[in-house]
């Protein structure tokens, strides 16, 4: 019998007792002071009585009870409602008290309005009994004039009392609550659709899929963390609680070993409790292939047993672990298609029940914080929380997992073939270099005859790997001369990768091959087998993005996993990014993303100390589509770099520090030169004594980077820098006292000062002291304080701080810190993008673009884009557009860039334009969302796009309205004006922008509407228009008159001159057109022509006289019209400016 059944029996027993007591009371005919009386009967003692005059029979909210009572002296009266449920008896849900001091020995009546809790009225509580009861008791004497109210009196300790049992209402008879208003159309529709639906609790299974997609185990301490929560279903949760000390669970795990455990023990799966101690179960793999299972027994100790399994390599194996009470059974089942191993079972009885609580702590798949994992893969993992006899756990996704096994076996064959080839080539070379004499015939035969077949591989192998042999035969000297490093598989893989990239990029042109031949893919596969996992990531990119080959997600998954297995940073970031976003067939799983990002984060911290490496650069966010970004690059031959160098030579401290930084890190297109950077740091530190330069130079002296190590001089530089106010120097002194002098108290003091002044390194180091219990004021481990310091340091970009804070967020095992894996992933992704190897890939891609090799730039940017780097995704999309690559290539990467947590506005705008021009349903809403995100990121173009959409009738998102203080009741003009004002503020560096012109248009339109609404101002507008028209007409008339004044006198003077010449010569000019067809001149023509000319002259003289007479009047009209129109226009412009401002 369980606890809940006991409670049920107790509840029923109490109910029976109450009913029997009620029956006995009802059968009694006399009243006693200490007994209860039913309703309607009074309880009387020495002149004190109480009874119910009016009481309802059923439970009804708001019903009134009439209580009649009589007091012999000052008394207190009380009424209460008591209910009994299945789990609780005698719960008071209503109580009312009052006192009587004056009217004694007189019967009185008092009404009481009953109030019942909503749970009783709605029948959400299983109520067995409801009782209303009243009592009366005397007040204490000597407590003032009116006595003292005895607040401690109860029903059972009262002088007289009475009660009545009420009938509870059945759920079907509960009166419906009237709704004060009419339901909406949508509410009524939903009710009509769901009124016949039988509501049921959601199905909850005891089977948990811990893994559904393959997971890479790199052999390090970075596994997948899973948290198991209690059941929502009460029955399942009750069964789970009852089996804590008698567990019945089953775990089924698929594993694929590439290498056996490199340490003594490697984790497969383990459980960590709330106290960060190993709990049941702990499954480990030994370096011989055996399995150790450890459990915690009820007595509190830990016990374990070893199963001699000798797990094989390159084979999928399923491990089924059954825990029943004190017995553990392990079944090892290889995949059906694999041979060489049979199924076998191992059973062990610990002779004591096992303690198991899966809701406490967390589970880790693979390596944990204090335990490394094995080198291989995890397949599907199923966990049966309440146990099962039959395990159903198929190998899925089958194509991906089978592809992994097939690829690893092919890689092993390729490595054997290559080793044999290199051995043969090396052997021939060594024989040739021995200096021994050979016969002339043999030399000629070797030169002109057939080559001796010495290879140890079959013809089928040569045919299968013909692309590899073709490449090896073309460059035999490269592998037979020089150091032995040239004959290592890693070197061969790098050479193959560079060869394929050169072929893909098509050096010398801006076009990349539209198709990728099978031979190039085969070479990349070979390069991947050699362990050069740039090729693995490129193969994954080709298959997932369809760059020159059809999309094949299964093959893409295979090479993504293979690249991550090689602990290649970019491949790990690639998997983390895919699982974060849930794209390209990868499930969205923040726990898996955390396992990959945490690995890269830890490596990034180590890589920061390898700044001298040629493949370590800071990731620079330069968009190749942005001319301003490209112009900001300061190459060694550029004017900017030369100017900085000139200023540094002249003694400018800021230029010296900037030049040293550029040369030390190789930023902005400048080649890395550690020696020159150290010289500039030394010059600023020693000559000028700049605090920042002194700190940087002291760190170089401590580490011996670019300069001979000098601890004494480094300490002097640190002390001087700290004295001059360098916060980082305080942290440096703390490091010196902690690491070199082992003076933890002084070190803590410096770390605390640095942390309080904003040093992220100081915050992290102070957190380490709290974590390790080295705080002199509190020498105990304080994980909570350490977590908050780690978290604060991560906000400033501290790599180690982010890694530590993310671990606490992913486990949720620290008190007061809730589990938030998504936040941990976001934090780690930002840190991982600072990795030097990623910066090197981006730098090489930019270098190829600037040199004109756009195809190579596309390939290298694509590698960085697959890690989720936003600037690389935008650059790949731009190159796909410029190189006329596939349509999907362009929009794939623009779309991926918008999925980042802090996307660049260029990708948001591009995708917004894409959806805006699309005719799909809901495309405009998506465009508005993207434009809004760009606007919130500070893009003026995004705001302008929203203005265009708003003017087309679309709603502006609420988040934009809230940011710009725009009410939902504001009209379109106000919304557009506010948006344009914000757009102009963002473009304040530019004089004339589209937003400026649009804002001018909006404000002028607004001013015009205000003016047209005022009759006086509207009249002024009309007057201005009329006077302007009149002025234009009068000006035109004046211009015409001036033309006539010039033309008529000239014609008159010319006619007078011609007449004078004619009078002197007695002849008149003959017009050729006036000669008749017989060649004779008309004798009467001169007379007629003279008459016409005379009339014309007289008419012109009349017009001229009129013009001379009226010219001054026309000029006056013109002047008046221009003046009036000018005045009106000035007033009009003033009004417009007034409304605009």
Automatic annotation (TrEMBL):
The keyword Ribonucleoprotein does not apply. Keywords: Membrane, Signal, Transmembrane, Transmembrane helix. The keyword Transmembrane helix applies. It comes from the Eukaryota. It holds the Pfam family Sel1. Residues 1057-1092 are annotated as: Disordered. Residues 1-29 form the signal peptide. This is SEL1L family member 3. The lineage of its organism: Eukaryota, Metazoa, Chordata, Craniata, Vertebrata.
């Amino acid at each position: 019998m369980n606890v809940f059944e006991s409670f049920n029996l107790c509840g029923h027993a109490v109910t029976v007792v109450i009913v029997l007591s009620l029956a006995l009371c009802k059968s009694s005919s006399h009243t006693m002071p200490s007994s209860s009386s039913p309703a309607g009967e009074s309880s009387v003692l020495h002149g004190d009585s109480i009874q119910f005059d009016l009481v309802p029979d059923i439970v009804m909210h708001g019903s009134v009870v009439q209580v009649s009572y009589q007091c012999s002296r000052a008394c207190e009266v009380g009424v209460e409602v008591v209910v009994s449920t299945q789990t609780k008896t005698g719960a008071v849900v209503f109580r009312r008290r009052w006192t009587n001091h004056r009217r004694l020995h007189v019967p009185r009546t008092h009404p009481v309005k009953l109030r019942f809790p909503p749970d009783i009225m709605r029948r959400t509580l299983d109520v067995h009994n409801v009782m209303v009861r009243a009592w009366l008791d005397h007040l204490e004497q000597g407590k003032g004039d009116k006595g003292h109210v005895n607040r401690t009196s109860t029903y059972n300790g009262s002088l007289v009392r009475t009660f009545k049992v009420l009938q509870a209402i059945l759920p079907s008879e509960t009166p419906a609550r009237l709704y004060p208003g009419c339901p909406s159309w949508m509410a009524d529709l939903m009710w009509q659709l769901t009124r016949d639906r039988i509501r049921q609790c959601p199905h909850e299974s005891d089977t948990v899929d811990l893994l559904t997609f393959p997971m890479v185990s790199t052999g390090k301490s970075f596994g997948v963390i899973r948290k198991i929560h209690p059941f929502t279903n009460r029955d399942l949760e009750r069964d789970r609680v009852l089996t804590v000390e008698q567990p019945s669970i089953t775990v089924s795990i698929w594993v694929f070993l590439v290498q056996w455990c490199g340490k003594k023990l490697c984790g497969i799966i383990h459980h960590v409790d709330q106290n960060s101690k190993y709990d049941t179960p702990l499954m480990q793999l030994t370096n011989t292939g055996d399995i150790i299972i450890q459990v915690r027994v009820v007595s509190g100790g830990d016990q374990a047993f070893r199963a001699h399994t000798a797990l094989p390599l390159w084979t999928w194996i399923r491990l089924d672990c059954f825990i029943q009470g004190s017995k553990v059974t392990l079944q090892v089942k290889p995949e059906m298609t694999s041979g060489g191993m049979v199924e076998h079972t191992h059973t062990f009885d610990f002779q004591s029940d096992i303690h198991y609580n899966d809701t406490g702590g967390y589970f880790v798949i693979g390596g944990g914080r204090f335990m490394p994992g094995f080198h291989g893969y995890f397949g599907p993992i199923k966990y049966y929380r309440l146990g099962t006899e039959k395990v159903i756990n198929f190998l899925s996704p089958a194509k991906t997992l089978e592809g992994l096994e097939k690829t690893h076996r092919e890689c092993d064959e390729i490595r054997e073939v290559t080793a044999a080839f290199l051995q043969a080539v090396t052997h021939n070379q060594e024989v040739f270099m021995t200096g021994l004499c050979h016969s002339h015939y043999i030399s000629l035969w070797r030169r002109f005859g057939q080559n001796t077949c010495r290879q140890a591989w079959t013809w089928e192998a040569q045919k299968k790997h013909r692309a590899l042999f073709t490449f090896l035969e073309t460059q035999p000297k490269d592998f037979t001369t020089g150091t032995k490093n040239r004959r290592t598989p890693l070197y061969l893989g790098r050479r193959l990768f560079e060869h394929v990239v050169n072929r893909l990029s098509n050096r010398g042109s801006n076009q990349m091959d539209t198709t990728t031949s099978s031979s190039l893919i085969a070479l990349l596969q070979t390069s991947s087998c050699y362990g050069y996992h740039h090729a693995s990531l490129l193969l994954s990119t080709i298959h997932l993005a369809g760059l020159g080959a059809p999309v094949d997600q299964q093959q893409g998954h295979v090479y993504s996993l293979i690249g991550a297995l090689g602990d290649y940073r970019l491949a790990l970031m690639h998997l983390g990014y895919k699982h974060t976003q849930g794209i390209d067939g990868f499930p969205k799983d923040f726990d898996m993303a955390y396992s990959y990002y945490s690995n890269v984060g830890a490596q990034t911290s180590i890589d920061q100390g390898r700044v001298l490496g040629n493949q370590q650069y800071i990731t620079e966010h330069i968009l190749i589509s942005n001319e301003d970004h490209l112009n900001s690059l300061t190459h060694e031959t550029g004017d900017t770099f030369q100017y900085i160098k000139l200023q540094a030579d002249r003694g400018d401290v800021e230029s010296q520090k900037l030049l040293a930084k550029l040369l030390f890190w190789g930023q902005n297109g400048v080649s890395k030169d550690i020696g020159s950077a150290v010289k500039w740091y030394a010059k600023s530190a020693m000559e000028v004594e700049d605090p920042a330069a002194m700190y940087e130079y002291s760190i170089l002296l401590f580490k011996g980077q670019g300069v001979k190590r000098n601890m004494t001089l480094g300490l002097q530089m640190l002390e001087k820098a700290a004295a001059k106010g360098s916060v980082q120097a305080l942290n440096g002194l703390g490091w010196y006292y902690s690491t070199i002098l082992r003076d933890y108290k002084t070190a803590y003091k410096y770390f605390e000062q640095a942390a309080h002044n904003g040093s992220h390194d100081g915050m992290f180091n102070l957190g380490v002291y709290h974590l390790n219990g080295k705080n002199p004021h509190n020498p105990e481990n304080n994980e909570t304080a350490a977590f908050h310091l780690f978290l604060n340091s991560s906000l400033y970009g501290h790599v180690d701080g982010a890694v530590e804070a993310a671990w606490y967020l992913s486990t949720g095992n620290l008190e007061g810190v809730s589990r938030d894996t998504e936040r941990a992933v976001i934090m780690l992704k930002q840190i991982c993008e600072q990795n030097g190897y990623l910066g090197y890939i981006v730098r090489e891609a930019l270098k190829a673009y600037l040199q004109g090799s756009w195809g190579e730039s596309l390939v290298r940017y694509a590698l960085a884009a697959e890690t989720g780097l936003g600037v690389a995704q935008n650059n790949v999309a731009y190159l796909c557009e410029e190189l006329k690559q596939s349509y999907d290539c362009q929009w794939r990467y623009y779309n991926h860039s918008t999925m980042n947590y802090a996307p660049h506005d260029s990708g948001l705008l591009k995708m917004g334009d894409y959806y805006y021009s699309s005719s799909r349903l809901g495309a405009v809403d998506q465009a508005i969302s993207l434009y809004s995100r760009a606007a919130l990121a500070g893009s003026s173009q995004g705001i302008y796009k929203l203005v265009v959409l708003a003017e087309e009738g679309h709603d502006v998102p609420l988040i934009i309205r809230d940011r710009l203080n725009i009410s939902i009741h504001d009209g379109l003009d106000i919304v557009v004006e506010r948006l344009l004002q914000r757009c102009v503020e963002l473009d304040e560096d530019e004089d004339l922008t589209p937003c400026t012109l649009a804002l001018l248009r909006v404000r002028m339109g607004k001013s015009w509407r205000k003016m047209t609404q005022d009759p006086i101002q509207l009249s002024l507008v009309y007057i201005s228009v009329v006077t302007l028209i009149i002025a234009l007409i009068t000006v035109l008339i004046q211009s015409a008159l001036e033309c006539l004044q010039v033309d008529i006198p000239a014609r008159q003077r010319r006619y007078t001159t011609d007449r004078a010449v004619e009078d002197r010569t007695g002849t008149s000019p003959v017009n050729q057109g006036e000669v008749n067809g017989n060649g004779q001149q008309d004798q009467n023509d001169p007379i007629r022509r003279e008459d016409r000319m005379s009339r014309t002259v007289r008419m012109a003289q009349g017009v001229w006289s009129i013009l001379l007479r009226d010219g001054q009047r026309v000029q006056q009209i013109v002047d008046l019209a221009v003046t009036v129109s000018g005045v009106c226009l000035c007033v009009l412009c003033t009004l417009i400016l007034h409304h605009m401002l």
